[in-house]
Design goal:
The protein has 450 residues and is an alpha+beta fold. It is 30% helix and 29% strand. The structure holds adenosine-5'-triphosphate. The site of adenosine-5'-triphosphate has 16 residues, from strand 11, strand 14, strand 17 and helix 9.
Length: 450
């Protein structure tokens, strides 16, 4: 029996993708029309998982702090924003075409820059050209020059553009942060690896504005803090690392960046970047907009442009990493039958698990429905619950294991006499008998863990 979630194993990717489809986490988009490459829809389980990832981030970044406030900025934005940010000029990837098989690649992602991975030929690539990743469209009924707008390729610019508004209305002063969760769009040349890289995705970003002299301190602080966040939600140490960028890897705006990386089945890859952006963004927007984007420190009688530390994470990519980290298989005896079988279980941290509790009447018989519904209505106001009354109980436990539900509450015929229920634990499969009257407190003690 394995005690740890499966590490980066080669077939883990296919197993997780299969489970996602089979159990309603993620579906290919527009599937009945043959699918739409590299876009995905989040099903009943996926929407809960993604929401839990975002809620856990919001809780740690906004709710539990006094120095960070939230924002929800528009997705459509005028060219002026992207002119100032440098995205119109610099948000490009080098693209090469294979003259033989006509496949396209990102030059910087090829293992060998001269070898086409699709057809195996050498020397067939065109000269690299810079391809801008932003999606452009038109606002209003007129298409053409002067009506272009962009779908944001990151949420960060919303925070810089609103720096003055937030400073004036929130009574915050540096060091303070603005946090945002939302959709971003990039016309990726090579989307792939399931929801790891898609053209439409969700980000969780925070811009932390600090006095220039304190930049290094806050950069180190946020590197530690962010790595700690993944650990606190059950990601094991051997699947996580912090990697500092070399000088040549840095973006046009950054003087230092570290990535939080996860050991995916194909190797280490980025979950989040923590960048020291200096005063680049505020200075650029001040220059282009004509607004003063500074802070006046009355005590020191000093005016300065704050520097920015930015932890920028992907919500959809992180949800996928939680799925990979949680996936486990173990050989067990069939519950109650003594025969061996493989149990698939998602060992999610309770905060991440889509359903926290499943209420399962032992049989569909009418006399069990009333107490089962009573139990459901007691538990539902506190946690997301599943309710399932068909199939043998052992198979229903297995289904909940595959959904990652930490606790099952079973209502059986004894419940009618003793007003107690059985609580079955996902990880240990141990069962405890608990009175209905103290049920919510009992569940709280087991689910509300930090
Ligand atoms: P990459 O090098 O993988 O293209 P990036 O360094 O450009 O990513 P950032 O601009 O730092 O990414 O974005 C912050 C985070 O947003 C990334 O760490 C990632 O989790 C997420 N992200 C970026 N692009 C995508 C995408 N196409 N699909 C899903 N998530 C993405």
């Amino acid at each position: 029996m394995s005690t740890e979630p499966a590490a980066a194993q080669p077939d883990l990717f296919d197993k997780v993708v299969n489970l996602c489809k089979r159990r309603g986490f993620v579906y290919p988009s527009a599937e009945i029309y043959g699918g739409f490459r590299s876009t995905y829809d989040y099903g009943p389980l996926g929407v809960l998982l993604l929401r839990n990832v975002k809620d856990a981030w919001w809780r740690s970044m906004v709710q539990l702090r006094h120095d960070i406030v939230g924002l929800d900025a528009a997705i459509l934005s005028p060219p002026a924003v992207w002119e100032a940010s440098g995205h119109l000029q610099n948000f490009t990837d080098p693209l090469v075409d294979c003259r033989n098989c006509r496949e396209r690649f990102r030059l910087d992602q090829l293992d060998d820059p001269d070898l086409c991975p699709a057809c195996g030929r050498r020397g067939t690539f065109t000269e690299a050209r810079q391809f801008n990743l932003m999606f452009m469209t038109y606002a209003g009924p007129v298409e053409g020059a002067g009506h272009e707008v962009y779908l944001r390729p990151e949420t960060a610019q919303g925070m810089f553009v609103n720096f003055k508004n937030v400073l004036e209305t929130s009574r915050k002063r540096p060091p303070f942060g603005i946090a945002q969760i939302g959709k971003s769009f990039r016309n990726e040349i090579t989307p792939g690896n399931f929801v790891f890289r898609t053209r439409e995705f969700e980000q969780m970003e925070m811009e932390f504005f600090v006095p220039p002299a304190d930049t290094q301190h806050w950069y180190e602080y946020w590197c530690d803090e962010r790595l700690g966040w993944y650990r606190s939600l059950g990601m094991p140490d051997h699947l996580l690392r912090l990697r500092r960028h070399d000088a040549e890897e840095l973006s046009h705006y950054s003087s230092a960046t570290s990535d939080v990386e996860f050991l995916f089945p194909w190797g280490w890859d980025e979950l989040e970047g923590i960048a020291n952006r200096g005063d680049y963004d505020l200075t650029q927007h001040a220059k282009h907009s004509g607004e003063r984007l500074e802070f006046f420190d009355q005590a020191a009688n000093e005016r300065y442009t704050p520097h920015v530390i930015e932890p920028a994470a992907g919500a959809t990519r992180t949800a996928m990493a939680f799925l990979m980290a949680a996936y486990d298989e173990e050989e067990v005896e069939r519950e109650g039958q003594g025969k061996g079988e493989t149990r698939v279980v998602l060992r999610f941290h309770p905060r991440i698990a889509p359903y926290k509790v499943a209420v399962l009447p032992l049989s569909k018989k009418a006399e069990l429905q009333e107490p089962a519904r009573e139990v459901l209505s007691l538990v539902q106001p506190h946690w997301m619950c599943d309710y399932d009354e068909t199939q043998a109980i052992g198979r229903r436990y297995r289904r909940q294991d595959e959904l990652g539900t930490p606790l099952c509450v079973t209502v059986d015929f004894e419940t009618l006499d003793d007003r107690a229920v059985t609580i079955r634990d996902r990880d240990t499969m141990a069962q405890d008998r608990v009175p209905i009257d103290g049920l919510v407190e009992h569940l709280r003690a087991r689910l509300d863990v930090d």
